[in-house]
Design goal:
8-stranded antiparallel beta sheet; single chain; alpha+beta
Amino acid sequence: MARGKKTVERVVELMRDPKHIRNIGIVAHIDHGKTTLSDNLLAGAGIISEELAGKQLFMDSDEEEQARGITIDASNVSMVHEFEGQDYLINMIDTPGHVDFGGDVTRAMRAVDGAVVLVDAVEGTMPQTETVLRQALKEQVRPVLFINKVDRLVNEIKVDETEMQIRLGKVIDKVNKLIKGMNEDLYNNGWKLDASQGTVAFGSALYNWAVSVPYMKKGGVSFKEVFEKCRAGDMKYLAKKSPLYEVVLDMVVHHLPDPLVAQKRRIPVIWHGDKESREGKAMATCDATGPVGLMVTDISFDPHAGEVATGRLFSGSLKRGDTLYVMGSAKKENRLQQVSIFMGPKRVEVEEIVAGNIAAVTGMRDAMVGSTVTNLQEMFPFESLKHYSEPVMTVAVEAKNMKDLPKLVEVLRQVAKEDPTLGIAINEETGEHLISGMGELHLEIVTGRIKRDKGVEIITSEPIVVYRETVTAKVENVEGKSPNRHNRFYFDLEPLPDEIVNLIKSGEVSMNQPALERRDVLLKAGMNKDEAKSVKHIKGTNMLIDMTKGIQYLNETMELIIEGINEALAGGPLADEPVQNLKMRLTDVKLHEDAIHRGPAQVIPAVRGAIKGGMLIAGDSLLEPVQKIQITVPLDQMGAATSQIQGRRGQVFDMQSEGDTITVVGKAPVAELFGFSGDIRSATEGRAMWNTEFSGFELVPNNMVKDVVIAIRKRKGLKEQMPTPADYLSS
């Protein structure tokens, strides 16, 4: 414990010197060894004992993580490493590898400046490796590579020394190819991984050893020796002569940027405010005396301290008792109660945290994941966190005992705050509460935690698929009349082009950016000038464009129009499922001159009815979530793997063979993938390795739409016949 205390004191000293700080994330495909690597790094820093490293899984502090042997939550730790006679502070986040928890990786990448990408030497790069790399590069987070489980190449695959080097070279080439494909500019400007430069290390996290070209010179270990010691099973020799933590942390300190260098490059990408403003300059220079610029990347609950907000402090400093504001929450004051750093599952209180560090604070009751927190009354918010996947599966939950109902509603709100990749719908009327997640495992973990940690007994339904609604054609001049007949709204509806949908998804078009900047991006994507400058509202991937000219009272009514539109988009006319990719042009409005006759009770139903009725006229249809599937099997099992995809309304679009295995790549609707893991195991005698990842929404085949709609309407307690435009448009 004394050693731990000494670490905290040293951390606090180093925290003030951004030149000697490295903020890093450990990212990889599931089971490639991230948490085992993290354990070893912590043992090297004296935070846990060396005997337990790799077995303790210190960063997997949750009992569910320990039981399943996977990381579910990203967890933070601060440690000290000495390099060339100088101490460095390393703030590290261990992230999950399972595709269902990819949201945690997205959020962690906002907090760090560098990433250690782990790849299994035997399996090579996998779909999730590609995903985490993409997330890192999008956030301008610089990668270095650690190729893990090198001992398996020698002892299981029985390669010779030359073959070992060829295989390791192939892994590096593959990762470089991915980096180049994702961002050629960064690749050409020094982000290419190169073993001779020292941006790649090789080793075994389980046996605590690693080598890199610079360290081979320093420690005198050669590749020949690595090969011989692996073959002889003498891992202890390697761990002593070339300890993993030293090799990896030397690489981190030497090749990954400090906050001063990183923020100069990252701030223009993640913050679109005025670069010349006081806060803009302070964040670009990591100024501890400037205004507070904190981006919240995680919310967790501490039974004693309540809500803990963790995030990256880009400028300013935080002390207990400070008054801060959360942008977008009505400028209410939030007073800091505790300021701390994380040491794995433990939070350690400190006096003050300065710019360039990862901070954990309590007292920020208005903060959510993605919030911008500052001590200024007004500040341009950070770019919102965009996760590449969307919730595709839903379970309905209800409290086992009626008396727990208020507590369940409170707990669901808490859960939504902790994990923004979850969709929570609380239906006060039907009493049905829906939780939507990334997959079966995600939902299983969340519902399990509600029972275990929050103490609410719940009954959960079988998982159901989340559909979306969209239009397939164009309709003009749809009229929505208010109940009193005094106000009329006219809309054109059509599908929003894919190019613009993609710009919204990637965050390049949003209502947060200056209007001129948004107009220019839309013009480039092919939108006409009048429309591009008249965007009034973006909700999800739907866009409202105001094409009216000089209509009296429209400005003061616009807020109500947007409210009506949001209600229509939350549940489309066919099956009350969320609407996406819809372009709405408001072309004309007739308003009563007396404000009392154009209030919310008149405007909202008129607009909602026009959008829903118009969607039915424009050929409203259902979209279903589709997942990409990758199955690797021995050659003789190829038929079993392809028939598993094709038998589920799926398509196979690629096959790649390597040695005696073949990888089948295809896609299939999520609705057909329930029970897939059991089926593929039995079909291939347990010899398949597979992976699924979200690949977007596609139209449900025409011949199935009616049956699917009626089944959803039945489940939701809506009228079972197909709706018509007349149900929404008054004659």
